[in-house]
C-alpha cells in the first residue's frame, strides 16, 4: 500500500501551500554574542580614549582609571597594601592599573554581549560605569571640584552611544516576503516575514572607524597629558642649587666597602626606592609652588615660595630613609645626600614652640599636592636633628618621583610619619584632634625607625664554593647610630663583623665578615646593636603597625 504522504518512487513531489508556509516560518535568530562582545570592547576603548582627551582640559589626575585607582588604594586594607608592596615592589601601581583595565575589559565584553538583545540596558550600563568614575574623581582628596567628573562623564557618553550604534548594526532585519502562490491559480496571499540578516557591511565600517578614531584620540590625549607638565620640567631644569651654608662633611675614608655584591654607600637617584599612593606623579611648577605654615601655636603664619627657600642658608646632610613597609632584609631603604632648609628654623620663625617648651601643638601635619597627609611629632622635628625641607638630592634638584620641588626629610622616623613629598601645606595640630592618612588605616601615630640589619651577599640560595666567602651587608638605626654588627653561622656563636667607617649616626653602615665556608647547607643570620645598647630583636613582627622587626637570615649551599 502506498503512503499518502510519500510520492511513488521515480515521481517528483509537487510542493503544497502547507510546505511553502512551513519553509517561511520565522527561524530562531542566534544572537551574535561574539561580535557583541567585540562591540563592548570597542565601546570601552572609545570611552577611555575620550576620557583621556578630556582630561587634558581638566587635569591628568581626573582620568577615570587614575581616579578609580586612587579610590581603590584608599579603600584597600593596610594589610593588602603591604602585601602588594612586598610582592610587586615599586610596580604595585602598574599592577593596580592593569587590574583595573582588565576588570573594565571584562565588563565591557559582557555589556557588549548583552547589547545584542538589550541595547538600551547595555548602553545604560556604560553610563553607570561612567558615574562610578565621576564620583571617584570628585571624591579624591586633591579634587578641584565637579570639573574632575567631566572626563568620566564624556567618556561614558561616547562609549554608550558607540555601543548602541554597533549593537544596532547587529540587529536582525525582518522583511516582508513575496506573495505565496495560491492552491489552484498560483495567486496567493501573504506569507510570514522572512529573515533578511544583519548589516554586515555597516558593522564592519562602524567598528573599524571607531577603533581608528579611539586610537587617535587616546594617543593624542596621552601625548597632551604628558606635555602638560612641561612648565614643571622647565622650572626644574632651570633650578640652580646654591652652595649650602652648612655643607655635609666629606665622606670618611672607608664608608663604602669594596665587596662584590654589596651596594654603594650613596644610593643613586634612579635606584632609590619609591613607595607612595600617587598613580600619576605630580609635576609641580616650582615658580608657582607655595608652602603655607599655619595652625595651633603658629603666632606668625607664613607662606613661602620656592625662591624664598633657595635664598635662605641651606643645609646639606647625608640621611638614610626607610619605608615602614620594608620587610626584614627588604630593599626599601636608601641613603642620599640631601640639601634643603632646616624645618625647625622655619617653624621658629612662625612662632612655633615644641611641647617641651610649652607649645600647644604636638603634631605637624604635612599635606601634599595630591592630598596625602603625613603626621610628624613636633618635638622630633625641633629637637636639633637635621629635619629638612629638601630641595635637592645627590647634587641635583629633587627628581619628580621623589618630591620636586620640595619634600620633607626627617632622620630617625619612618617615611609615612615624616617624608611628605610634593609638600604644599604644614598645619600644626595635635595627635588627639587629627589622624593623618596612614593612621586612619591602622598604622601607628609615632614610628621611630627600628634597629635593623641586612645580608646583601651571599644571596639567598646561593651556591658559593668551599673556602673563604665574604659575608657583607648594611645596618641602620637612624639618629642613634650603629655600634656593632654580629653574624652567626647555623647555631654557632655570634661573630663580630668589621664595620665600615661611619658617616653620621643618621646614615646606614656597611659591614663584612670573612667566613671559612665548609661544604653543605648553612643558615647565615645577622643582628645589629645601636648606640643606645639595644640589640636587634629576634622576635618577628609584621610591618603593620609600626615597622617589621626580626633578624635577617639567608640559606646557602656550599659546594
Task: Write a brief structural summary.
This protein has 559 residues and is of the alpha+beta class. It is built from twelve helices and 20 strands.
What does this entry look like structurally?
The chain has helices at 17-23, 33-57, 64-75, 78-88, 92-115, 119-138, 150-170, 200-227, 230-237, 306-310, 343-349, 378-381; strands spanning 174-175, 194-195, 290-295, 302-305, 315-322, 333-342, 363-368, 373-377, 388-393, 396-397, 407-409, 423-429, 452-457, 467-476, 482-489, 495-496, 498-499, 509-517, 520-530, 553-558. It is α+β, with helices and mostly antiparallel strands. The strands form 5 sheets. Strands 4-3-12-7-8 form a 5-stranded mixed beta sheet. The longest helix is centred in the middle third of the chain and has 28 residues, at 200-227. Mean pLDDT is 89; it is low at 1-5, 20-29 and 184-189.
Protein traits:
single chain, 559 residues, alpha+beta, five-stranded antiparallel β-sheet, 31% helix, disordered N terminus
Fold blueprint:
Blueprint: H1 17-23, H2 33-57, H3 64-75, H4 78-88, H5 92-115, H6 119-138, H7 150-170, E1 174-175, E2 194-195, H8 200-227, H9 230-237, E3 290-295, E4 302-305, H10 306-310, E5 315-322, E6 333-342, H11 343-349, E7 363-368, E8 373-377, H12 378-381, E9 388-393, E10 396-397, E11 407-409, E12 423-429, E13 452-457, E14 467-476, E15 482-489, E16 495-496, E17 498-499, E18 509-517, E19 520-530, E20 553-558
Parallel strand pairs: 3-12
Antiparallel strand pairs: 1-2, 3-4, 5-6, 6-9, 7-8, 7-12, 9-10, 9-11, 13-14, 14-18, 15-16, 15-19, 17-18, 19-20
Amino acid at each position: 500500500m502506498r503512503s499518502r504522504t510519500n510520492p511513488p518512487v521515480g515521481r517528483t513531489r509537487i510542493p503544497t501551500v502547507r510546505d511553502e508556509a512551513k519553509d517561511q516560518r520565522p527561524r530562531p535568530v542566534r544572537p551574535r554574542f561574539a561580535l557583541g562582545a567585540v562591540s563592548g570592547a570597542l565601546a570601552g576603548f572609545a570611552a577611555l580614549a575620550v576620557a583621556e582627551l578630556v582630561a587634558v582640559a581638566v587635569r591628568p589626575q581626573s582620568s577615570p582609571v587614575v581616579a578609580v585607582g586612587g579610590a581603590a588604594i584608599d579603600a584597600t586594607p593596610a594589610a593588602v597594601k603591604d602585601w602588594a608592596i612586598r610582592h610587586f615592589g615599586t610596580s604595585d601601581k602598574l599592577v593596580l592599573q592593569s587590574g583595573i583595565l582588565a576588570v573594565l575589559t571584562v565588563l565591557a565584553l559582557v555589556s557588549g554581549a548583552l547589547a545584542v538583545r538589550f541595547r538600551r540596558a547595555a548602553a545604560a550600563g556604560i553610563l553607570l560605569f561612567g558615574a562610578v568614575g565621576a564620583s571617584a574623581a570628585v571624591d579624591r582628596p586633591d579634587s578641584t571640584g565637579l570639573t574632575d567628573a567631566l572626563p568620566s562623564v564624556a567618556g561614558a557618553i561616547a562609549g554608550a552611544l558607540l555601543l548602541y550604534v554597533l549593537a544596532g548594526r547587529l540587529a536582525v532585519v525582518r522583511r516582508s516576503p513575496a506573495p505565496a502562490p495560491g492552491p489552484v491559480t498560483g495567486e496567493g496571499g501573504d506569507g510570514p516575514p522572512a529573515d533578511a540578516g544583519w548589516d554586515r557591511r555597516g558593522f564592519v565600517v562602524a567598528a573599524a572607524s571607531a577603533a581608528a578614531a579611539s586610537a587617535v584620540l587616546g594617543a593624542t590625549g596621552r601625548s597632551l597629558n604628558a606635555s602638560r607638565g612641561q612648565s614643571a620640567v622647565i622650572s626644574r631644569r632651570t633650578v640652580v642649587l646654591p652652595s649650602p651654608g652648612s655643607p655635609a662633611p666629606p665622606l670618611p675614608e672607608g664608608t663604602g666597602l669594596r665587596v662584590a655584591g654589596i651596594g654603594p654607600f650613596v644610593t643613586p637617584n634612579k635606584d632609590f626606592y619609591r613607595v607612595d599612593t600617587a598613580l600619576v606623579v605630580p609635576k609641580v611648577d616650582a615658580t608657582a609652588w607655595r608652602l603655607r605654615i599655619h595652625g595651633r601655636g603658629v603666632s606668625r603664619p607664613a607662606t613661602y615660595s620656592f625662591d624664598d627657600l633657595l635664598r635662605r642658608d641651606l643645609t646639606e646632610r647625608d640621611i638614610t630613609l626607610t619605608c615602614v613597609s620594608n620587610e626584614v632584609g627588604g630593599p626599601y631603604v636608601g641613603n642620599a645626600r640631601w640639601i634643603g632648609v632646616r624645618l625647625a628654623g622655619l617653624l621658629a620663625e612662625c612662632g612655633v614652640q615644641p611641647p617641651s617648651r610649652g607649645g600647644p601643638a604636638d603634631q605637624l601635619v604635612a599635606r601634599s599636592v595630591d592630598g596625602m597627609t603625613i603626621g610628624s611629632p613636633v618635638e622630633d622635628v625641633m629637637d636639633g636633628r637635621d629635619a629638612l625641607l629638601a630641595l635637592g638630592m645627590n647634587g641635583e634638584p629633587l627628581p619628580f618621583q621623589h618630591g620636586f620641588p620640595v619634600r620633607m626629610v626627617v632622620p630617625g622616623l619612618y617615611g609615612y610619619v615624616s617624608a611628605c613629598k610634593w609638600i604644599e601645606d604644614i598645619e600644626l595640630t595635635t595627635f588627639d584632634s587629627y589622624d593623618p592618612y596612614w593612621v586612619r588605616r591602622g598604622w601607628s601615630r609615632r614610628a621611630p625607625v627600628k634597629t635593623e640589619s641586612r645580608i646583601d651577599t651571599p644571596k639567598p640560595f646561593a651556591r658559593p664554593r668551599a673556602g673563604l666567602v665574604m659575608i657583607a651587608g648594611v645596618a641602620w638605626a637612624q639618629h642613634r647610630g650603629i655600634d656593632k654588627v654580629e653574624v652567626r653561622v647555623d647555631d654557632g656563636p655570634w661573630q663580630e663583623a668589621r664595620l665600615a667607617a661611619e658617616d653620621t649616626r643618621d646614615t646606614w653602615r656597611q659591614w663584612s665578615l670573612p667566613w671559612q665556608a665548609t661544604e653543605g647547607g648553612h643558615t647565615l643570620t645577622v643582628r645589629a646593636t645601636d648606640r643606645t645598647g639595644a640589640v636587634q630583636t629576634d622576635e618577628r613582627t609584621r610591618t603593620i603597625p609600626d615597622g617589621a622587626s626580626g633578624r635577617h637570615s639567608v640559606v646557602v649551599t656550599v659546594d
